[in-house]
Amino acid sequence: MKAVRIATRQSPLALWQARHVASLLIERNPGLEVSLVEMTTEGDRFLSAPLSAVGGKGLFVKEIEQALLDGRADVAVHSLKDMTSVFPDGLILAAVPAREDPRDAFCSPEGYTLALLPPGARVGTSSLRRSCILRSRRPDLEIVSLRGNVQTRLQKTRDLKLAGAMLAAAGLKRLGLEHHITEVVSVADSLPAVGQGVLAIQCREADADVRALLAPLEDLTTRGAVRAERAFLAKLEGGCTVPLAGHATVVDGQVHLRGLVGRPDGTRVVRGEVKGPVPEAERLGEALAEELLSRGAGDILRDFGRRDDTSRA
Ligand SMILES: NCc1[nH]cc(CCC(=O)O)c1CC(=O)O
What we know:
Radius of gyration: 19 Å
Bound molecules: ligand PBG
Number of helices: 10
Helix content: 25-40%
CATH topology of the largest domain: D-Maltodextrin-Binding Protein, domain 2
Strand order of the largest sheet: 2-1-3-10-4
CATH superfamily of the largest domain: Periplasmic binding protein-like II
Number of strands: 13
Low-confidence stretches: 309-313
Largest sheet: 5 strands, mixed
CATH class of the largest domain: Alpha Beta
């Protein structure tokens, strides 16, 4: 292979991620020509509405996947967190590099940590998962919707004089903005989203040359965790409409997956965890999803989930 084209969104985080993959490729393949195909997606055009109202996380991904399918690019780099559980026919998750910090980070211009927040404090996020988890612990908190790219959300936090905002530690670190973090929140206190901190490198299934080029970027520990998390996601099909968290670690060949489904206002949260060997990652993810469904997540999905389907009808 002499040249590859990488499709990416144009946000500073997306560009950082695409350039990062480009440099990983060039490092391993001196002389390879790598170019970026920069795209604006539907998700970028509707930044003012809550993600759950404009059709969910697939919005950031669909048009980039179409560019791959149309042959306008050879590789796509996404945040795995932004991807739904099912890929279009003909595309594969060719590689997942080593995961960046998967945790949420609290960023407070006033220097607050979560435990020190005064009663009734206003906290910014537009993630259903983050608001559910915050409200379940602290029903007094007022959640203020905060969308836009990472820098925009930090700016709005100051402009709106919020006590703080919850963002992904991975995005802040990649952009060199970690000095805004006042608390990196433990996985136990804020269970991350499925795929958080993981880069998804996608290509056409039939493109053997590109697959061979991408294969060395794969991190097997990250892949084990991703297999469990995404099997869990696939079974729950919550899309962006129900607060859903799923996070796995792999230690000594054992997957440890934790999951959560809740009501948007945090008045009900169903949590669980499973452990088992890496080759059974998918089965573990499905088993945890089924367990949560039988313990109350089914009711929550019925009451709050699948708004995607009705809006499409
Ligand atoms: N929702 C957008 C998004 N998608 C991925 C990341 C962060 C990077 C990652 O998780 O890999 C972010 C920003 C955020 O949630 O603060």
